[in-house]
Write a structure and sequence with these properties.
The chain is of the alpha/beta class and 434 residues long. It contains 19 helices and 17 strands. Strand 13 (290-293), helix 13 (300-309) and strand 14 form a beta-alpha-beta unit. Helix 5 (115-123) packs across helix 6.
Length: 434
């Protein structure tokens, strides 16, 4: 990817820098972003403000935006660790008495302070960071039997779990996505991952985490919680009994910036565009029906459209907006014959719905891994004619025939034998009411 195609931008609140593809610049500028200054001195001052004054900015944020509550954190049987990505756990916990422990400083809305919390902070001041001491103090105050997270790759959760390693509190991490970030980390960093109990997708993820020397005490290959919740929704709304509408479900894997996930793979964004281009070219040639399942939310919905428009200039396309509450991605997969993407978690989750997939790792990069080889995978860039031949071959196959052309059992890709929702409910109930 040429540096000329990448533009540095500053966020409207002057709190971060991002790198974006050139064709997205106008969109971001219209949203209040501005270009990184060409003046060297001004640029240095801006970087100093963004990166060196974070603690001061957070202190000011606390003063003007966070409510101080002078009492202990309320007692809870279950604590959800991290306020991000909580919806699927909340669907499982239902009426259970649970609390949410916010672990991200920028999302703090209230701070609890009591005699016990302050004494704990003072006593452990030299042992660990103030933030980690505070989170630990809140957990002690809540006195939960279970602390669970659906953000299994969060460093804070790993540190907190280690603090309570010898306690009676059960710490559980539920895998929420492919762990490409674990794969590309060096051993120095991946070996810091500490999870007492890991509810992972399949035995493949156990293999990956052991290879990367992660410190995980117990593995439970149980499949995907989000996919399990989606399957319940699909069954309740009888989507599984409705007619198949589409030949192909194309998964959007839009990334708003080039310095986020997969930033070390130079051609990653262009390969996303290539997959979309190949798919729509094939659709036009063969009269196939496509549903393009969106990923972006909020202000990024339009950015997602602009991104793919750059690669689909010859074709008419519509990206179906992502709707988490209606499990849009899973409904789109359910109503399609096959799924195409690069490395989306959905490519693995599709097996729960007995769908054929084609993972197109056109980057050829070693860090983009899929649990199976065979008919389901391109692990290098290929010409359009080879892509066309493979897709048409898969479309002609039954699911049972397709499975025979994989290099591994589908349960090594995504364990479909376990009802993930029920497994988590039973595990929590057993801990709380034993």
């Amino acid at each position: 990817m040429s540096n000329k195609t990448i533009v540095n931008l500053i966020s409207p609140k002057l709190d971060r820098m991002i790198k974006v593809k050139y064709f997205l610049v106008d969109y971001y500028l219209s949203r209040g972003y501005f270009r990184y200054p060409k003046n060297f001195i001004f640029g240095l001052l801006l970087k100093f403000y963004i990166y060196k004054l974070r603690k001061l900015k957070f202190f000011l944020y606390i003063i003007f935006n966070v409510k101080i509550i002078f009492k202990n954190f309320p007692k809870k049987n279950v604590l959800i660790y991290d306020c991000v990505n909580t919806n699927d756990l909340k669907k499982v916990l239902g009426n259970e008495k649970y609390g949410v422990l916010t672990s991200r400083l920028e999302r703090f809305k209230e701070i609890y302070l009591s005699k016990n919390i302050i004494l704990f902070l003072i006593k452990n001041y030299f042992k660990r960071s103030l933030k980690q001491n505070y989170l630990a103090a809140l957990i002690l105050s809540a006195s939960p039997k279970v602390v669970i997270t659906n953000v299994d790759n969060e460093d804070d959760f790993h540190i907190t779990s280690k603090i309570f390693e010898k306690s009676r509190i059960k710490f559980i991490a539920v895998q929420c996505a492919n762990r490409g970030d674990t794969v590309w980390k060096d051993l120095k960093h991946s070996s810091r991952i500490f999870i007492p109990e890991f509810l992972c997708f399949s035995s493949f993820d156990r293999k990956i985490h052991k290879w990367k020397k992660c410190k995980i005490k117990k593995y439970y290959p149980v499949g995907s919680l989000k996919a399990s919740n989606a399957k319940k929704y699909i069954n309740l709304n009888k989507f599984h009994k409705k007619k198949i509408l589409f030949d192909i479900c194309l998964i959007s894997e839009f990334l708003p910036s080039t310095d986020g996930d997969w930033k070390h793979i130079e051609n990653f964004h262009d390969k996303l565009g290539q997959i979309a281009n190949y798919t729509y070219r094939l659709s036009e040639e063969m009269g196939l029906k496509i549903v393009f399942s969106g990923k972006a939310r909020g202000m990024l919905v339009n950015a997602e459209k602009i991104f793919y428009k750059n690669y689909l200039k010859k074709y008419k396309f519509k990206i179906l907006k992502y709707n988490e509450n209606k499990f849009s991605t899973y409904v789109n997969m359910q109503r399609s014959k096959m799924i195409i993407g690069l490395c989306s978690t959905s490519l693995r989750e599709a097996f729960l719905f007995k769908k054929k997939v084609l993972a197109c790792n056109f980057t050829g990069h070693k860090d983009v891994i899929f649990p199976s080889k065979g008919i389901c995978l391109f692990n290098k860039d290929v010409p359009y004619v080879e892509f066309k031949k493979r897709v048409l071959k898969i479309l002609r196959m039954s699911f049972n025939e397709y499975k025979k052309n994989l290099s591994t059992d589908i349960n090594n890709i995504m364990d479909t034998r376990v009802n993930t929702r029920n497994f988590i409910i039973k595990k929590i109930n057993k801990t709380i009411y034993k």
